[in-house]
């Protein structure tokens, strides 16, 4: 049952993931100095600073990842609300909390893969001799990996926003607003990974508990 649910979620999220990955790879291609569409100035040009330094790469990546997190989280939470699929799924031989957590797991996995591929590709390019005159160590990618690990906070906030009953102008948007604010503050704080990671773990835990509670208590009729 879980395998079938995972495959279902992958089928329903592959469109978002494919678009986000394609745009991310186009951005990386531009930062490498290669141009797919010379007549379009929207994509970044070859990077002239040390790769991964100064937050340039992460800034470009965020233009793709944040919209993906919001769209993916909201879509996964609300897709089954309008057509009554939740009622069908909840009568399957699987716990309600397991069903919701499986959806979350698939969404987070999709987000991580979409980000890991361009990070690894740009890192490989920067580490290859002759591609860039600046020195490069893989440790310089730490900021990008931290961004990748913390960005699902926005996804979870969007998922909880979609799952919660209520008016849009009321409390329903609070999880997304709180998650976005927290994510922004964390990424602007100086590089204190030893503090970021445990605080992020607590925030992830609170979101998971709230999502599980809402999923268990909501009337889906």
Automatic annotation (TrEMBL):
Native species: Kolteria novifilia
Transmembrane segments: 12-32, 52-74, 100-124, 144-161, 173-189, 195-215
Keyword list, A-Z: Membrane, Transmembrane, Transmembrane helix
Protein name per Swiss-Prot or TrEMBL: ABC-2 family transporter protein
Transmembrane listed as a keyword: yes
């Amino acid at each position: 049952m879980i395998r079938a649910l995972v495959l279902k979620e992958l089928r329903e999220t592959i469109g978002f993931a494919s678009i986000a990955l394609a745009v991310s790879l186009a951005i990386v291609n531009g930062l490498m100095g290669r141009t797919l569409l010379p007549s379009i100035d929207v994509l970044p040009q070859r990077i002239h600073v040390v790769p991964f330094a100064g937050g340039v790469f992460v800034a470009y990546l965020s233009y793709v990842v944040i919209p993906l997190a919001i769209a993916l989280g909201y879509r996964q939470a609300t897709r089954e609300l309008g057509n009554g699929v939740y009622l069908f799924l909840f009568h399957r031989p699987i716990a309600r909390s397991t069903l919701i957590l499986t959806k979350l797991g698939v969404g987070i996995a999709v987000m991580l893969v979409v980000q890991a591929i361009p990070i690894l590709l740009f890192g490989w390019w920067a580490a290859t001799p002759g591609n860039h005159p600046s020195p490069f160590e893989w440790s310089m990618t730490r900021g990008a990996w931290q961004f990748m690990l913390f960005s699902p906070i926005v996804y979870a906030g969007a998922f909880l926003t979609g799952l919660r009953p209520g008016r849009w102008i009321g409390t329903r948007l609070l999880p997304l607003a709180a998650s976005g604010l927290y994510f922004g503050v964390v990424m602007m704080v100086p590089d204190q990974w030893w503090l970021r990671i445990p605080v992020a773990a607590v925030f992830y835990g609170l979101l998971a508990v709230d999502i599980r509670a809402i999923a268990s208590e909501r009337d889906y009729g």
